[in-house]
Amino acid sequence: MTVESAPDSVRPASLAEPTIPGTEWWRTAVIYQIYPRSFADSNGDGVGDLEGIMRRLPALAELGIDAIWLSPFVRSPQKDAGYDVSDYCDVDPIFGTLSDFDELLAEAHALRLRVIVDIVPNHTSDQHRWFQEALAAPEGSVERDRYIFRDGKGKNGNTPPNNWESVFGGGMWNRVTRPDGTPGQWYLHIFDASQPDLNWENRWVRDQFEAILRFWLDRGVDGFRVDVAHGMIKEAGLPDYTPPVETGSMGGTTAIADPAALDPAALDRAALAPDSALPKLEPKPIPSPPYWGQPAVHEIWREWHRVLEQYPGDRVLCAEAWVDPLSKMALWVRPDEMSQAFNFDYMFTEWNALEQRAVIDRSIDAFSAVGAPSTWVLSNHDVVRHASRLALTAESPQGAGIGPSSPGQPDPVLGLRRARAASSVMLALPGSSYLYQGEELGLPEVIDLPDAARQDPTWFRTRGEKYGRDGCRVPIPWESDAPAYGFNDTGASWLPQPDEWATLARDAQVGVPGSTLELYRSALALRREFALASGMVEWLDGYGPHVLALRNGVVTVIANLGPIAVELPVGGDIILTSEKITGGALPSETTVWIRTDS
Ligand code: NOJ
Asked: Could you tell me the pTM of the whole model?
């Protein structure tokens, strides 16, 4: 591991000033996720890179976001698109060099954009030096103790140590071969076999990661998105476990809302009832698998919190933690732990007014109980893009990607309309919102990728039974009339781009009234102007069962999730609409923002 400090010249003096506790920048920030492989490719090899990102930063500043989060760009054999790290302190040559990173960081800061980097502490690549040393070392050695090696069960240890199943399909254990050719111990991997899990009970592992955090903080990063934050500690004894339900995208258990509360008559009654009479649709808690959400992880966050505190300015730790219910998730963001956690409960809530309202309430209640802001997120690199997901029908296996043979194919027109309405609600909510590159263009999931192009380990480990996540990772279009839609200038693309994307390219939307890009731009500007991110939600009743209506400061937000138009209130100025509005009615699947001033 090379540990080098960034020169003072790249340290962001202007962004490093601390704010009063409770007003830190990340509490209200809009954070834009860049998936480096698919954002912009400066050298034309078909894979995006840091230089490409740097050239496109002005477009992001112009969009009106506050920060970028970069998915992994560090050294990796790329078996899981960079989430299999072989050196945490160097840039992978496919993305550039450390000095490219320093330049990108300085440039982002000059544009007043903060930079969050992804850190992957649950597992390394099997090519990481630590794992190679563990393989070469004898059973029971200190090197082996950095990972989770166990003897197998049964005759000759031929049966894996327990029955756990990998998130990507297949078993969670792989057996190694001893130098004399005989079968040896098994190692644990929650994800692919090329991603062995680290042993976080081991102090040495913790110390290495403290040094890695400091390496990036010294260079000036504004914080970390922490991969698989819920998986780092496993229950003692590694007991067998059989999941009771289908698991969510990254293996989180899926919360099930009380079916009784979803009875349509109950929905209608509830929508007409005063606030206090509304059911909260608390999901039924599902017992946590022995590898997720173990209480001892909190001790790690407290240590990390103390490291970040030693740096000037307000640095953020954001947990990727698939934990239910939200009240348990909120424990990750207590004042001395992480700053934020992705709100996957919100992401996976049905497009249904009562459920949306319930999850918004639940989120604000749970996070504010520990003094943290709620986050909001609709898309990322692991889930079906929301411009497709919101139009999926019940039979679609949305947790595992969709492909040409998936049942319940989404209607693209309906999907985009719902996505625009949903994003227009999300950006009016108090707290911090995460955007995934391309959602501001209204990009759908690419469903018909040829099988031969697919690269997600899920596709291989399930032998094609689950399509996986490639469909949301296709390089994004910048110019309608350029090779690879301006992703690069050679036309190469690590995943093929669809023919229909010319009309979705950024240059086809800039300045075009009603385009998705202009909708996002206006929403972000108004969100800032009216300080919506630091406001409060006050629900407005009486609009019927299919409508979400709320006031946040002087802005009234009305979203019609139902099939027929509803009457708009009289008075106020319409300042944002997700679709064209004529007359005094709000069409179906449309959101409007009205400035009321009272
Ligand atoms: C969550 C990441 O978001 C996902 O892309 C990755 O495959 C797994 N963690 C494993 O690191």
From this structure: 0.92
